[in-house]
Amino acid sequence: MSWEKGINIENVSEIICGSHIFMGVGAIKKMDFIAEQLKNKGVDCVIAMTGKRAYESTGAWAVVTEALDKHNIKYILYNEVTPNPETHQVDDAVKVALEGGAKAVISIGGGSPIDAGKSVAILMEYPDKNCQDLYEMNFAPEKAAPIIAINLTHGTGSEANRFAVVTIPEKNYKPAIAYDCIYPMYSIDDPALMTGLPKGQTTYVSVDAVNHVIEGATTVLNNPFAVTLGNETVKLVAKYLPKAIENPEDLEARYFLSYASLIAGTSFDNGLLHFTHALEHPLSGVKPDLTHGLGLAIILPAVIKVIYKNSGYILADLLAPIVPGLTGDASEAEKVENGVRQWLVSVGIDETLKDVGFVEEDIEKLVDLAFTTPGLDGLLASAPVEATREVVRQIYTDSL
C-alpha cells in the first residue's frame, strides 16, 4: 500500500516555498551578491546574530565582513546567542541594533542564531514591544527587517521557513511562532561550513530533520508536497548520516544532509508539526541545556507508536529506509516503535528521559507545559490522533 492512500484529496493545500537559498560547497561566496542587494535596498548597517565561536572557526565571519566592508555596510556583532535562545538575549540584541542604526539582520549559525535573528528582525520594526510580547502572542507581526541566514548545521530548516522558537525562561515556556514576514530574504547552505560539527551534534541535527518530516507528513494538514519531501529526507539521512559520523569532512555527506534538512524545513513549513515538537519544547524549556535534537529523539519512538494507527500508510513509505518491510497496518505499531529505536541506537542515541535528568514526578509538569505554552496548542491540534492529556502523558511515560 502506498503513501498516497494517507492523503485527503479534498483537503485544499497551501504550498509554501518562501526563501531564496544558495546551496553548495562555496555558497558562502554569494555573500558579496547578498551584500550588494542589501545596499541596493538602502541597508547601511546590519546586526549579526551568532553564538560564541562557530561563526569565526568555520571561516564564515571573515567572508561576511569582507563583503560588508566592500559595500560600505557597517556591522554590529551580537555573539551571545546560546542553544535554546532566551527572550532576554533577543531584547538585548534589539536594543543594540536600534541604537546602532541596524536595518537588517544577518544570522550565522544553526537554528538558535537564526531563530533569535528572526525575532530581532520583527522587534526592530516594533520597538514598543519586547520578545515576551512576541512569544506570548500578544501581537501578530506583519513586517520584519530583512533577514539573511547563514546556516552552519544540517537540521533545523529555519533558513528555509517562517518558524522561530525562543524560550521564556521565567515560565519554562518554549513557544514557536510562524509568520510570513520572517522568511529569510537570502539563505546560505554551504556544507564546507559544517565539517567541524561534533559527532553528537551531527547526529542530533540530522534527527531533528527526520522528526520534521515524520510530523509534517502526518499532520491533519499534510499534503503530497510535504510527504514527498519527507520520503526523500529520510532516505538521504539514512544513507549519509553514517558517512558523516565516520568521516566528518565528507563534503558529499554534508551536502546531502544539508539538502535533507532544507527540504525537511520546507516539508513542515507546509505540513506543520505535531506531537514530537510540542512535547520536546517543554523538555528543553525546563532543561535549557538539553539539546533539541536529542530531546526529539528520546520521545520519537513513543510518538510513532501512538500515531501509527492513523498514519500507517504514510509512515510505512516514509520510514522504509530505516524500518524496512512495513505495510502500514495498525498492528505494526510496536514493530515500528522498536525499529525506530534501534535505528537511533545505530547512530549513537540510546538515551531515555531518565538519562537526561527527568523522573516520573516531572510528568505532570511537562503535560501542563505542553498544553499551556503559547503556540503549542496549534501543534497539538494538528496531530493525527486526538491530543488528550492522557495521550501526551503516555508518550512522556513511555519515554522515561
From TrEMBL:
State the source organism's domain of life: Bacteria
Q: Does the keyword Nuclease apply?
A: no
Query: What are the GO cellular component annotations?
Result: cytosol
Q: Which UniProt keywords apply?
A: Oxidoreductase
Question: Domain Alcohol dehydrogenase iron-type/glycerol dehydrogenase GldA spans what residues?
Answer: 20-191
| UniProt-listed CDD domains | Fe-ADH-like
Residues of the Fe-containing alcohol dehydrogenase-like C-terminal domain: 204-399
Q: Does the keyword Metal-binding apply?
A: no
Q: Give the Gene Ontology MF terms in alphabetical order.
A: alcohol dehydrogenase (NADP+) activity; butanol dehydrogenase (NAD+) activity; metal ion binding; methylglyoxal reductase (NADPH) (acetol producing) activity
PANTHER family attached to this UniProt entry = ALCOHOL DEHYDROGENASE YQHD (PTHR43633:SF1)
| Name of the molecule in the record | Alcohol dehydrogenase, class IV
